[in-house]
Amino acid sequence: MIRRLNIVFLLALYISCGDTNKAENKFETDRPNIIFILTDDQRYDAYSAAGHPFLRTPNIDRLANEGATFENAFVTTSICAPSRGSILTGMYAHSSGVPTIEALTDPNPDLATFPQLLRKAGYKTAFLGKWHMARHKRPRKGFDHWVSFYNQGNYYGNELNIDGRLVWEDGYITDVLTEYAMDFVQKTNKDKPFMLYLSHKAVHSPFTPPTRHEDLYNGVEVIVKHNPKDILEQKQKWRMERERSNNPNVNEEAIKNYNRAITAVDDGLGQILQLLEEKGILDNTLIVFSSDNGFFQGEHGGMSDKRHAYEPSIRVPMLMRYPKLFDSGSRYSEMVLNIDLMPTFLDVAGVSVPDNVQGQSILPIVTEGRVGRTNFLYEYFQEDYDYSERPTVIAVRTEDYKLITYPDVRGAIMELYDLRNDPEELFNLSDVPEYQKIKDSLEQTLDGLKIETGFKMDPPTPRENLEMIQMWQRMKGYNVREDAIEKHDSIVKTQ
After folding, report:
1. Would you call the peptide bond into 206 cis, given omega within 30 degrees of 0 as the criterion?
2. pTM greater than 0.70 (yes/no)
3. Among residues 113, 200, 432, 474, which is most buried (max CB within 10 A)?
């Protein structure tokens, strides 16, 4: 009898400990699949559930209606390669090893990426699409399955590297990538979770829709977004004169094609959702939809492109569907960042987040009601091929204000915006006496963020890439920075 009671006691203790461990890490025994869909240059308001006047995206809207919308999602650098490096590592661009689009490098190999850590934890991992860091299409570490093209790729006609094998695909690249994504999902087994990173070329310029959507949105009214009340003289000229004259991305047809290309992404998402439902795994799959940066459509006197600290450039869509975490139609106003995606993916999978990660898991906002961050650092580092056109931009964005600085430009205008009362950033308040205390406080906050994040003003490009960069600059007809290697060596020496 005593022996039997001891056995019962030990069994109860075992079960109790097991329950405690499960409570501490509720995803360890029921890890979801993860599908991360990343578009290129998609604005935060470029889907119909965000209130777009004519764009129709029923499948993106479905993620919002059946999951969570993060209304204040931002990137810490609004240009493709640095943003992608930050997403993979959870680190700011000055720390990730991908400081600029021309760095021609993958993230620092000493930093773990979320695919590497998920694969190590038992996930089957796949990358499909636009990598756009080091300019080759060979498979990278952390992925069991790889499908990619060189650099930007083309909307029609691409040589794909599929697990080291070169395959030519004539089709529209959004549709092609969707087919490969569905093939990967179809072949997965329920006994092992998977992580699919689907990285679209769309909607990067030249905006190109598939043939089936070439006439979509004909007849709708397109309004270029410049507000005539914008006081341009109060802003750093930056590249505005060039942006305002005959920009091919700021006209009615270009904007229609931009939205037609997004519609093709939405088509593919619908196919993936249908397949997940057919396999019975939709509700056990975390689906995250976002973009690497935003895009201007005529704001501030005709601006296009990105690379600036204004809202249309740094804000992105961020939608998440996973019924075990997110209530249908839930909305969160907390500021979340692209560097938060990496720790969030690890958190939901029950994988420890490395101590050096600078992002924060989004899950405590949802599960614990945690108050999110109140500010963040924005950084864009001047690219050598465009030395005088786009200077380095360092900014701080809080819940109410934004301070933008141009540290490399002598006599540059500092820009201060009251976002609550001026969400379009029309009126620079940096010289308004009533705002001087706020400006001083923001400068102190910016200095504190630099210290906190280990900010480097000139994060060096790996030296071995500089000759390749110069060769590329000459081929493109850009002015070559002949002092680049000497400048690099002096920076490294001081750091």
Report:
1. yes
2. yes
3. 200
